[in-house]
Write a structure and sequence with these properties.
Strand content: 15-25%
CATH architecture of the largest domain: Roll
Distance between the termini: 35 Å
CATH topology of the largest domain: PH-domain like
Number of strands: 8
Strand order of the largest sheet: 1-2-3-4
Shape: flat
Largest sheet: 4 strands, antiparallel
Helix content: 40-55%
Radius of gyration: 24 Å
Structural class: alpha+beta
CATH class of the largest domain: Mainly Beta
Order of helices and strands: HHHEHHHEEEEEEHE
Length: 244
């Protein structure tokens, strides 16, 4: 009951944020159009631009969180699996696939930051009387350095994690997954997992919100991917699957 109250309170807060941002954005637009807001904007656009940026960001964030909560409910739904899962495969995770998937997950996690940054790039010229594209150079340079640092960090994690450099053998059945390699010999029960997330190239078996085992989909046949999706959809845990 306490968890349900927390969920309800979060939903209420997100809805209040959406309503608040919608009302004040509407008031601002009406003032802008009918109460001399255009003249005020032309004389000093910075306050208006910052206000609208804040309202738009809050509105997008609130809507995204409401959709996320609805999505979480869908992720907990289960479909009965009547088959006998018995998958055996082996392989090694390549750095390219690991890097691309890590960047993909990072972009999805911080998508709001990207949208705000894009809006800033669009409206920044409006706040300058004598705009020069060279003034954007520090921002572009920062983004470039930031991206390179992320890639470098990803490469370091891959290089220092010995598991990524081993050829691992996997066995999956209805009760558990077993992973074996030179330095690995682990068995995990499916229902003890936190979440299963499917990306374009991996099945990620999360033990908590951060730590996960990476199953390369290239190690599966097309039929095995479909079979594992059906099985994963029967588990009473969170799952994000790309089922047809």
């Amino acid at each position: 009951m306490q968890i349900n109250k927390k969920i309800i309170m979060k939903n209420v807060i997100y809805w209040l944020l959406i309503i608040f941002c919608s009302i004040f954005s509407s008031i601002f637009i009406l003032c802008f159009l009918f109460l001399g807001g255009i003249e005020s904007f032309m004389s000093d656009p910075k306050p208006s631009v910052l206000f609208m940026l804040l309202m738009i960001s809050g509105l997008i964030y609130g809507i995204a969180k409401i959709r996320e909560k609805k999505k979480e409910k869908q992720q907990m739904k289960t479909v009965v699996y009547i088959g006998n899962l018995n998958l055996n495969f082996s392989g090694q995770i390549s750095y390219k696939d690991y890097r691309n998937t890590s960047l993909e997950l990072l972009c999805k996690k911080f998508w709001l930051f990207g949208i705000v940054l894009m809006i800033l790039f669009i409206i920044f010229p409006l706040t300058q009387e004598n705009f020069d594209f060279l003034s954007l150079f520090p921002w572009v340079f920062f983004l470039l350095v930031f991206t390179l640092l992320i890639i470098r960090s990803t490469k370091k994690i891959y290089r220092e994690n010995k598991v990524f450099h081993e050829k691992l053998t996997y066995h999956l059945d209805n009760e558990k997954i077993t992973i074996m390699g030179e330095t690995v010999n682990s068995t995990y029960n499916w229902n003890r997992l936190f979440k299963i997330k499917e990306t374009r190239t991996f099945f990620l078996l999360y033990h908590d919100s951060i730590i996960a085992n990476w199953l390369d989909k290239k190690m599966f046949s097309a039929e095995e991917i479909i079979e594992f999706q059906k099985f994963a959809n029967s588990l009473n845990i969170k799952k994000e699957l790309k089922m047809q």
